[in-house]
Each structure stands twice: as C-alpha cells, then as structure tokens.
Amino acid sequence: MLDLEEARLAALHEYALLDSPADAEVTAVVRIAATIADVPTATLNLIDESRQCQLTTVGFEGSTTRRSDSMCAIAFRGGRIAHVPDASRHPIYAGNPWVDGRIGAVRFYASVPLVTPSGYALGTLCVFDTEAKSLTEAQLARLEDLAEILVGLFERRRQTRIAEQATAAAERDRRRLELAHAELRRSNEELEGFAAAVSNDLVRPLASTSGYLELIDQLYGDRLDERAAGWLAGASESMERMRQLVEALLTYAKAGNAPCVRSAVTLAEATAAATADLRTLIESHGAEVRVRGNVELNADPTLLRQLLQNLIDNAVTYHHPERAPRVEIAGRHTDGGHLITVTDNGVGIPATERGRVFDMFTQVDPARRRGHGVGLSTCLRIVERHHGTIAVDEAPDGGTVISVWLPGAVAALSQRRDRAASIR
Question: Residue 314: left (phi > 0), alpha (psi -120 to 50), or beta?
Fold first, then answer.
C-alpha cells in the first residue's frame, strides 16, 4: 500500500506537468496572481521527490532547485495558505536560502497549495516580494480562487490527454481490426479456392476411381480368389469413406463461406427438407423423426437445413444397438430469439468428451469408424454465422440433446406451435 507521499507523487506524475512548458492560460493566471497581490514576482511551483520546478514565473527567471531549499515545500502538503509578511523575522523561514541571501532576499511571501480533487497537493501558487507587506483577506481569498482555477486547468489537460490516448488506442484497434478483416477476407478467398479444388480435383477423380473399381468387380469379380476379392472390397470401402470425407469437408467450407441470407422459415419446413435428403438413411434404420413446437425462425433456410441434416444424421448414425432411433426436434421462443433442441435416444456422448465434440475431426469412438468428425464442426460454423450458440448435453433417457439458440425474434406460428408432426 502506498504511503501518502508516494500517493501524492503518483498523482503529480499522473498530471504530466513536470519538465513541460506551461500553457498560456496557466501563465496568465500567475500574472493575475501577481497583480492581485500587488507584487512584482510570482511563480507556479511543482514539487516532486527532490526538486522544486518553477513551471512558469512572473518578474524573474524561473529555475529548478532542490526541494530542501524550497520555501513552499515546508508546509504545502497541509493544504493551507501560507501568509508571511516578513520572512526574515519568521522562525521557520528566516534561515531559508531564498530569504538569507544565498538564493534570494524574500521578505513578503504567500503561497496557496494546488490541491487536486483527490486531496493531493501538487505544488503551490506563490507570490513574493523583497519588501515586507501583508495581504488583505480579500486578496488571500482571490489567490485561493486562482489556485482552484489552476487545478481545474491541470485536470482539463489530464482529461484531454487521457481522451487523446483513448482515441489513439481506438485508432490502433480499428487498424488491427481492418487488418484482421483483410486477413479474414484472404482466408475466405483461400477457402473458396480450396472448395473449388475439392470439387474439381478430388471429387471427380474419386468418382472415376470408384467407377473403375465397380467395373473390375462386375467384369472380373467371379475370377478373383477370396483374398483378391477382399482387397477389392476394401479398396471400394476406402474410396467411399474418402468420398464422404471430401463431401463433409466441402460442406464445412461452404457453411463458413456461403452468404448468410436470413428469412422467415419454419422449423417443420427446415426439418422436412433435411429429412428428404436423409430418407434412405432414416428408412434403413427404421428411425422416427418428429417435430414438436413448430416455430418460425429468422435464419438462412439452406444453412438451417444443413444444420438439421447434420444433427439428424448423427442421431441416426450413432443409434443405440438395442432400440430403433428416435429423434425429436423441438422449438420454442426465448428472449431475443428461439431455442431449438434435437434430442435422440442413441448411445450418448460421455461427459468427458462433450467439451471437444465441436472441434474439427473429433470422433468420440474412432474404433467404430463411423463419421469423420466434421459434422458437428459444420454445425458450429453454421450457428456462428447466425451469431447464435450451440451446446451438447445428456438426454433424459441416456441419449444426446443438442441445444441451438438463434437470435432474431420472428412472430410465432401459434396455430401450429404444439402440433406434433411425425416424419418417417
């Protein structure tokens, strides 16, 4: 904890007045002080750890002297005005270098501490003369007024400097943001190139290779021994997995780069579009996909369909071996948006894995070789494009529930709200 003198010095340095030229307004105030006191000399003294710095003076050449030689340093921290008609007869000031001839021959001396709003004395407004004299109460009161004006000027200068620093910092942040946006645009352009390369340079060769493997199986399959037939089947399976991975990566790239154009779309409509693409998968597993609480959303219809398609695909693919897959998609209004939940009765996701399932290429159970760890990453990207949030938790029956919050209030379809729609 700082002691009082350390705190005072910190306040003094905060004003950044030392060793800096005085403003014209400050110099004018010191001249007025000399006029009010009817003396030829006046100064504004700032006192730091070891020095008395005369920031601006009237009637003599200012200088910097040792704090131990200063008259003002003797009592300025007390916050009271000092009024000495004849310093040479004063028990405290008589031996001071400014009085006994070593530096000056001051007789009349008056000083008003410059006290900040926080109560720290920075220095003094000082008037003096080589002739003994006294000031009236009115003159002393006006000097105190001038001291308050000086502190106000200092405070204004400090606030201006703080504002300028804040403006400069904001400008630096703006430039950094512009650079970040430029880098993001560059990355997006590279991602577009990547997506094009995936489409042209990978998808087509994969399709061609898969076609040749099918031809070999059709024309020569009955001539292959068991080992060769196994190799052919393994090659075909690997090509299919590669094709699925490439498609997943392409979907991921498009989800993050395609324009996000929001419009009114119902949860039931988006689910119907998603399940239409997954009809073969759903029917082959005897899965049930149901919508409860149909709401109208403010979302990009294509991206929303991709989001639901990925979530339904995961729910059906990772089904529990002892029961048919069941997926319930529900929507409800919340403050400023809508909450969509996709709940399944599958194998679930261990609590230890839930924190990373949205990371790229994360597979909860790699040994089972299902999926590529891209689907939930794509979902995260789609939700972020809508400035929403996505989270995973355990369903009541041991499956998984994915919660998606999308901002943007759109009127609810109240007449359909609680109507359940089953899709098989």
Answer: alpha
What are 19's two structure tokens?
Answer: 């060793």
64-106 pLDDT, tens digit each: 999 999 999 999 999 999 999 999 999 999 999 999 999 999 9
pLDDT in tens, 155-182: 999 999 999 999 999 999 999 999 888 8
CATH of domain 259-423: 3.30.565.10
Sequential DSSP letters for 178-207: HHHHHHHHHHHHHHHHHHHHIIIIIIHHHH
Tell me how long the chain is: 424
Strand order in the sheet with 82-84: 64-66, 51-58, 41-47, 121-129, 108-115, 82-84
Burial class (CB in 10 A: 0-12, 13-18, 19+), 215: exposed
Distance CA 132, CA 109 (A): 8
Cα dihedral sign, 191-249-212-280? negative
The pTM of this model reads 0.49
Specify the higher pLDDT residue, 271 or 221. 271
Token pair in block for residue 282 = 């759903």
| Residue 76 buriedness (CB in 10 A; 0-12 / 13-18 / 19+) | buried
Q: Bridge partners of 405?
A: 339, 389
Q: Pick 4-164's CATH classification: 1.10.275.10, 3.40.50.2000, 1.10.10.10, 3.30.450.40.
A: 3.30.450.40
Which residues make Cβ contacts (< 8 Å) with residue 313, sequence separation at least 6? 278, 281, 375
